[in-house]
Please model this.
Amino acid sequence: MDKLEVKRLVRVFNRQEVLHGISFTVQDGEFLSILGPSGCGKTTILRILIGLLKATSGTVLKDGEDITCLKASKRNMGIVFQNYALFQNMTVLGNVEYALRFHRDLRGESRARAESIIDLVGLTEHSSKKPYKLSGGQQQRVAIARTLAMNPEIILFDEPMSALDAATRLSLREEIKRIQKKVRSTMIYITHDQEEAFALSDRIMVMNRGRILQIGAPEEIIKNPAGTFVKEFVNDNLKLKIDSLVKYVKVDSGLP
Model:
């Protein structure tokens, strides 16, 4: 059974349809990236999935159960935002432990669980620091740790690296994949960055103007792009990035 199944999702804003009957599935333990330009509807999908926004029509199933009208707190999903959304007056440990205090089943082990998750994301030596004393990449790790602490079945990422520099993005990218293998969570990742999507994903869902244009493994999208937009937005952009770097790499450097 699919972990998540979305059927004919429609969303209307101010009488304008911004999602046009979106349907897709996500397998248990899969890393799916939703890739597309700004305004294509990818963040709208994410907010509907987690319950922050109501769909105009359509159905969302998790493990076969209809959760379309379920409260966000009942969906067992977590979300990592672009802007971290941390409590600046709390330490790293305080931020990660905070939500656990309101979870009846986890309250008694909140401190130990928070410390374990902080260790998982490599921030143990920073656990007593306030967020403003951390780098952007470290703050995003705190946000990820806070989400992981609640043990969600599905983790949603809303362009979490957009505000970070290139070196930090590369480092955090590797960290996210390492964490996914460790906790085996299903992850859905929103991005407009082609390289990021191809580096992280088991499958990629390419969107434009509220429609899905192609869903497939990275190799499939490269070999068989479904139409002009996918070819230009995905393949051609990736080729431009590669070409811009290859001319600086010497043949005898040992690199392919």
The radius of gyration is 19 Å. Helices lie at 42-50, 92-98, 110-120, 136-149, 166-183, 194-200, 218-223, 228-246.
